[in-house]
Amino acid sequence: FFPRKKWGQNFLIDGNILNKIVTSCDLNQDNYVVEIGPGLGTLTMKLAENSRGVLAIDIDRDLQVMLQEVLVGYNNVQLLFADILDVNLEEELVKAFALSTVQPYQVCANIPYNITTPIIFYLLEKCPHLQSATLMMQKEVADRIMASPGGKDYGLLTLTTSYYAHSKLLMNVSRNCFYPRPEVDSAVLRLTPWQERVKVNNDMLFKQLLRASFQKRRKTMLNICTDFSGQDKNQIRAWLEQWGISPLSRPENLSLNDFVVLANNLPLQEE
Q1: Residue 142 in contact with residue 112, Cβ under 8 Å?
Q2: Residue 173 — left, alpha, or beta (φ > 0 → left; ψ -120 to 50 → alpha)?
Q3: Pick from 59, 198, 199, 264: most CB atoms within 10 A?
Q4: Residue whose C-alpha is closest to residue 89's, from 68, 74, 100, 104
């Protein structure tokens, strides 16, 4: 079997790192786990040994025979060959283990690097029973998620992720731990959805404001908010000062709470 570049296949082959990832998931025999991109099944086996059941989802049906051979004897593993972004993950979990209702579950995965951001957004936006997601990803993406205001990596991904979840860097992983060896290093993050998110009055407008701001990240917030709301610039200036946001600040200087204040108070027009 040859890894497929088009699906971002880089298989983790370092046993020490595999053990660290499983330990960091903090699993027990009551946990169900979803693995995205099981690849050669190395992580799948360790997850199965430490959990109640594993639903392993992969787009590459050519892996089916090999995975079925590798996982012989692991009766608590269910394989699903599909594009993760096209399935209802929680419905598939119920079907795979004949559950009467969705149980809280964890995701643990070395996710395909070419669809890292869509997978993160999918898990955070579409999976309400998700307890946590322990994800191996490109270090560059992890840096963007963990960035602080004012840094070059701080942006839309940082803010959208922190709106939905607490992020924790668990470890950095060298490119030498994979086959084939990728051109970049990796990192493992744990994303834990907030039990209660910050209060946003209109979710769609909040996200539109974030997107509009970082599409024009060299503009000042005065100009961005004026363009976005269609209000008088002097009125916008007065409001920003009233809310404790400098009119001359740029998007990368604002915290999540600053954007929440703007989204909840600016008289915005839905696009």
Answers
A1: no
A2: beta
A3: 59
A4: 104
Report pLDDT for 3: 44
* 209-243: b (≥16 Cβ within 10 Å) or e: bbebbbeeeebbbbbbbbebbebeeeebbebbeee
- Give the per-residue pLDDT at 13: 76
Q: How many CB atoms lie within 10 A of CB 137?
A: 24
Helix axes 233-242 and 221-229, enclosed angle (nearest 10): 120
Eight-class DSSP state of 269: P
Mean pLDDT value across the chain: 92
Give 42's pLDDT tier (boundaries 50, 70, 90): very high
How many whole angstroms from its chain centre is CA 115?
A: 10
User: pLDDT grade, residue 7 (50/70/90)?
Assistant: very low
Task: Give the chain's domains with CATH numbers.
Answer: 5-193 (3.40.50.150), 203-265 (1.10.8.100)
Q: How far apart are CA 72 and CA 45, in angstroms?
A: 10
